[in-house]
Amino acid sequence: MRTSLIAKVMAGAVGAALLAGCGSSSDSAGQAQDTGPVSLTYWAWAPGLDKVVDIWNQQHPEIKVTVKKQASGDDLVTKIITAAKAHKSPDLVQAEFQALPTLVSNDVLADISKQAGDTKKDFADGVWQQATLGSDALYAIPQDTGPLMFYYRQDLFRQYGLTVPTTWDEFAATARALKQKDAGKSLTTFSSGDPGLFAGLAQQAGAKWWTTSGEKWNVGIDDAASKKVADFWGGLVKEGAVDNQPMYTPAWNKALNTGTQIAWVSAVWAPGVLTSAAPDTKGKWAMAPLPQWTKGASTTGSWGGSTTGVTNDSQHKDAAAKFAKWLNTDPVAVAALVKEGGIYPAATAAQTGTALAKAPDFFANQPDFYTTAAGIAKSTAPGAWGPDVNVAYSAFKDAFGKAAQNKSPFGAALDTMQKTTVADMTKQGFKVS
Predict the structure, then answer these.
(1) Exposure of 164 by Cβ count < 10 A (0-12 exposed, 13-18 middle, 19+ buried)?
(2) I need a labelling partner for 14 at 20 to 30 A (CA). Which of 162, 189, 194, 332 fits?
(3) For residue range 377-393, what is the model confidence (pLDDT) as tens digits?
């Protein structure tokens, strides 16, 4: 397996205690030959994957893939790391983008850049960069992604004479104008329970939360771009221009359904949430590009998304990589992923494919929904993840939760998030500059 700078930094930093027992059971030179029938195991959580895999198995009898359904998020990350320590990992694993550095640092994922060929052309640069960790290695094939967008109630925007904001300054002005017209309504809310959204907004602004330099990590959660985003939202919360309540609660659902909250900064998967959270508002929403920090720019962040990685324990890396590439780039496979799993594919060609030719039912009033979404997705800014995203996200929920409720400066909460993350990485044995 080709060794990249990023892998050296992470593997060297984790230390003997963490990496004990985590070494690869085989490398590219020592893996079993894939000349005969092989069986691969795939740990994943996306719905309907078994039906998609059935298509592969019918077309490729020489490589049989079996899906083993797993819990998502940190539960799967913990389980796969534990399995890797015992050299009992599956051949393939579905991993969220932000989990990749953690899995690489624990020697779970193989570098499949040689097997991937020219796959890079199938994805937006910002999406591909998250799978390479900014190196010449490739640790997974992107599967789905969640570009950020702006959702708003068309009817209420017309009623209150509001214009869809194209910049964040216009967004703030729109929030204030709505409050002046109807104090009982809010443009949106800042949710301290959703660090992934804040990370995506910081990403759009140019934040680089984790980068490497030599054999050290640079942690920049409190960088200028993130400070700008934190101060912007903290200011709106302090003056009462936007709400300060968490999302995904009965109260939030009611606010959306009754029109108390008339807009939402979210990702491409938002229609599914609105369908269940605000069923009475079907056909009343529209989607537009995310407001920009510079007028005329066109950059977005992402909230969510996952990949398909090949583990170091796999004895059939070439076969596993062949399947991962097929799953996430083949037109038939990706169309099946959209149909069976309801994902928004990372492959750019699939974003305007037949599977997404029709707008979501909830947005039947916007027939060009997915055409617009595909244009937005192309401008996804690169993400910069590190080996302890879970710690950073936990610190966000705690520090920003207190700041949002107290309407105190968000900059201080960001500083707390930075200090907590650095302290954790130092404790784990990473070299942090």
Answers:
(1) middle
(2) 194
(3) 999 999 899 999 999 99
The whole-angstrom separation of Cα 388 and Cα 206 is 20
- List phi, psi (to 5°) of 108: -85, -40
Residue 132 is encoded by which pair of tokens? 């390479």
CB neighbour list of residue 117: distance below 8 Å, 6 or more residues apart: 325
Q: Which position has the token pair 């925007």?
A: 157
The whole-number pLDDT of residue 10 equals: 56
Question: Is the predicted pLDDT of residue 411 greater than 80, yes or no?
Answer: yes
Global pTM value: 0.90
Q: What is the number of other CB atoms lying within 10 angstroms of the CB of residue 320?
A: 30
**Residue 42 parent element (H or E):** strand 38-44
Return d(Cα 50, Cα 40) in angstroms, integer: 13
DSSP percent split of the chain into helix, strand, coil, nearest 5: 50, 15, 35
β-strand 210-213 against 302-310: which pairing, if any? Answer: unpaired
Q: E strands, 72-136, where? A: 92-96
**CB atoms < 10 A from the CB of 73, how many?**
12
User: Mean of the pLDDT values across residues 289-318?
Assistant: 97
Q: Strand 63-69 relative to strand 210-213: parallel, antiparallel, unpaired?
A: unpaired
- Reading the block at residue 143, the tokens are 């599967």
- How far, in Å, are 45, 222, 233, 238, 418 from residue 408 at the CA level? 38, 17, 11, 7, 17
For residues 275-313, b (16+ Cβ closer than 10 Å) or e, as one string?
Answer: eebbeebeebbbbbbbbbbeeeeebbbbbbbbbbbbbbb
